[in-house]
């Protein structure tokens, strides 16, 4: 009997952690995919709502009664002016008897046939889902046409779903609830999904072949959908099982401890970050920015460092994204600005003509809270607006509708704005031209290849030409040798930073450096 019990306990000790691991893996995988699907559906719906808002804006702007020819030169110019200000709408025009007679592209003779209206939305817009305007662009040159009265707005359907390109195995799209027709889609689609939402604003379900997420717009009668294939889910689960099950069979009860420890490790970083903020563990370092022509210091970029009490030092490119992911970036920004409020007056007192450059997270530019934080910083004695430059990565401007007004308000405070790491993110020139910024910072990955045979060696000169065209000053990052500095200066770059000049230093060392009468006297060497 004892042997039987021992055997049973042994089997139980092996089976329990295996079963627990299988269950946890299944739940975590499903929850992770639901979160991913919700994120994707939210982005698609945001784009669709933005497209609808822009179409309405075009109707409003062009619906003012005018005497004479609707396709007059003045009317065409007005269409072009409206079109240029819309990022999703490609063409706006005048419709007569189901023909596009003229548009922001010009007059169309007898008109381009649009075909019959497929359905009318709940807001009274006549919808045609696939119209060939003969422009040879987009998928098969076809457009989604939204018409109100005699005015029409055309957009590429794929623009609504042209996101998450690394997830092409996941089906995405958007459909109209009134017409029960797809407006744009990629991958598989089941018409029965349209009826699963009912009166709810969102739904998640598994139909046997897909994990499906539906998300309804609060402004229009459109629904975004994302469908993750079951094979995709199974493959991820099998990969996880193939690691856990053999370990469980060998280690038995220790597997439970391993799973708990692994889960704690995965969840520990946000907790560590919160604790480190409470304890004030993060330190501010400052890296000088120099004028290339004279090597004189013109500014100091504030950089956060984490000398952890327990465990190895964690690089900023690891803990800052982690703070973004777990929603702590606002607290990090507040922490950083409070430290700068202490350090900056001491720096500015020694170098009145220098500035301190502050890095903001992506979410900072999507919330007006950053404006109050910056106002508090400017209220600090000894800090003037011209002494502060705000830096944000190019990724921060992915949603220009949110970022643009925040950037404008920051500049209205007298603070200059720099786009950091330009060329490594979304690289949308159309967004760049509408944002009010002062500097472009060339990422070090492009600086280190200048003057070489690398495929990216021509990126830096291209960025410099873009900045010149837009009237922006350029700062080269990560300059490590004289050849790179000479190349940048020869191509018109005024400012740079990097280990060739100075490394990032804590405030006490920076203050000693700032007391020197000439910046030419000795750069701080890079560590060996």
Characterize the structure shown.
This protein has 13 helices and 21 strands. The chain is of the alpha+beta class. An eight-stranded mixed β-barrel has the order 13-14-15-16-17-18-19-20, surrounded by four helices. Helix 1 packs across helix 4 (254-279) and helix 6 packs parallel to helix 13. The radius of gyration is 29 Å and the shape is globular. Residues 255-266 and 519-528 have low confidence and may be disordered.
Report strand order across the widest sheet: 13-14-15-16-17-18-19-20
How is the main sheet built? 8 strands, mixed, barrel
| Distance separating the two termini | 67 Å
- SS summary, helix count: 13
Average pLDDT works out at 81
Task: Please give the number of β-strands.
Answer: 21
Helix content: 40-55%
Estimated radius of gyration: 29 Å
Write a short abstract of this structure:
It is built from 13 helices and 21 strands.
Structural key phrases:
seven-stranded antiparallel beta sheet; 21 strands; 13 helices; globular; alpha+beta; single chain; 528 residues
Note the topology.
Layout: H1 2-62, H2 73-84, E1 91-96, E2 99-103, E3 106-113, E4 119-120, E5 126-132, E6 142-148, E7 151-155, E8 171-176, E9 181-186, E10 202-206, E11 210-216, E12 222-229, H3 230-251, H4 254-279, E13 283-291, E14 297-305, H5 316-325, H6 329-350, E15 355-360, H7 369-378, E16 388-393, H8 400-412, E17 416-422, H9 429-434, E18 439-442, H10 444-447, H11 459-470, E19 473-476, H12 482-490, E20 495-496, E21 505-506, H13 507-514
Parallel strand pairs: 14-15, 15-16, 16-17, 17-18, 18-19, 19-20
Antiparallel strand pairs: 1-2, 1-7, 2-3, 4-5, 5-6, 6-7, 8-9, 8-12, 10-11, 11-12, 13-14, 13-20, 13-21
Helix pairs in contact: 1-3, 1-4, 6-7, 6-13
């Amino acid at each position: 009997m004892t042997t039987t019990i021992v055997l049973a306990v042994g089997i139980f000790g092996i089976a329990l952690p295996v079963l627990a691991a299988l269950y946890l893996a299944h739940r975590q995988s499903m929850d992770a995919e639901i979160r991913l699907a919700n994120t994707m559906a939210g982005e698609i719906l945001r784009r669709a709502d933005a497209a609808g808002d822009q179409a309405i804006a075009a109707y409003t702007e062009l619906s003012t009664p005018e005497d004479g020819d609707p396709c007059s030169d003045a009317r065409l110019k007005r269409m072009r002016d409206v079109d240029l200000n819309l990022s999703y709408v490609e063409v706006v025009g005048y419709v007569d008897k189901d023909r596009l007679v003229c548009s922001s592209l010009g007059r169309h003779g007898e008109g381009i046939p649009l075909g019959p209206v497929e359905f009318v939305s709940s807001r009274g817009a006549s919808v045609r889902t696939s119209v060939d305007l003969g422009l040879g662009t987009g998928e098969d040159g076809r457009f989604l046409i939204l018409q109100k009265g005699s005015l029409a707005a055309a957009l590429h359907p794929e623009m609504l779903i042209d996101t998450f390109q690394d997830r092409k195995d996941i089906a995405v799209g958007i459909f109209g609830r009134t017409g029960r027709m797809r407006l744009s889609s990629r991958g598989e689609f089941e018409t029965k999904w349209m009826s699963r939402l009912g009166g709810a604003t969102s739904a998640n379900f598994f139909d046997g072949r897909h994990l499906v997420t539906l998300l309804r717009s609060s402004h229009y009668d459109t629904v975004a959908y994302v469908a993750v294939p079951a094979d995709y889910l199974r493959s991820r689960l099998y990969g996880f099982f193939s690691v856990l099950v053999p370990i469980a069979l060998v280690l038995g009860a220790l597997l439970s401890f391993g799973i708990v420890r692994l889960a704690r490790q995965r969840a520990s970083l946000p907790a560590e970050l919160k604790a480190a903020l409470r304890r004030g563990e993060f330190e501010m370092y400052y890296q000088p920015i120099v004028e290339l022509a004279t090597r004189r210091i013109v500014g100091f970029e504030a950089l956060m460092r984490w000398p952890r009490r327990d465990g190895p030092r964690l690089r900023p490119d690891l803990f800052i994204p982690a703070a973004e992911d777990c929603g702590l970036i606002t607290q990090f920004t507040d922490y950083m600005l409070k430290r700068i409020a202490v350090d900056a007056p001491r720096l500015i007192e020694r170098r009145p003509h220098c500035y301190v450059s502050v890095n903001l997270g992506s979410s900072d530019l999507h919330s007006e809270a950053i404006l109050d934080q910056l106002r508090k910083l400017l209220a600090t004695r000894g800090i003037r607006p011209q002494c502060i430059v705000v830096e944000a990565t190019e990724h921060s401007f992915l949603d220009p509708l949110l970022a643009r007004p925040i950037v404008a308000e920051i500049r209205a405070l007298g603070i200059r704005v720099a786009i950091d790491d330009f060329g490594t993110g979304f690289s949308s020139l159309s967004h760049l031209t509408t944002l009010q910024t002062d500097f472009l910072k060339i990422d070090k990955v492009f600086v280190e290849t200048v003057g070489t045979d690398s495929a990216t060696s021509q990126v830096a000169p291209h960025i410099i030409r873009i900045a010149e065209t837009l009237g922006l000053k350029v700062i080269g990052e990560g300059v490590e040798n004289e050849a790179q500095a000479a190349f940048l200066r020869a191509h018109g770059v005024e400012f740079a930073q990097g280990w060739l000049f100075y490394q990032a230093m804590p405030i006490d060392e920076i203050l000693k450096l700032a007391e020197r009468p000439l910046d030419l006297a000795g750069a701080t060497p890079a560590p060996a």
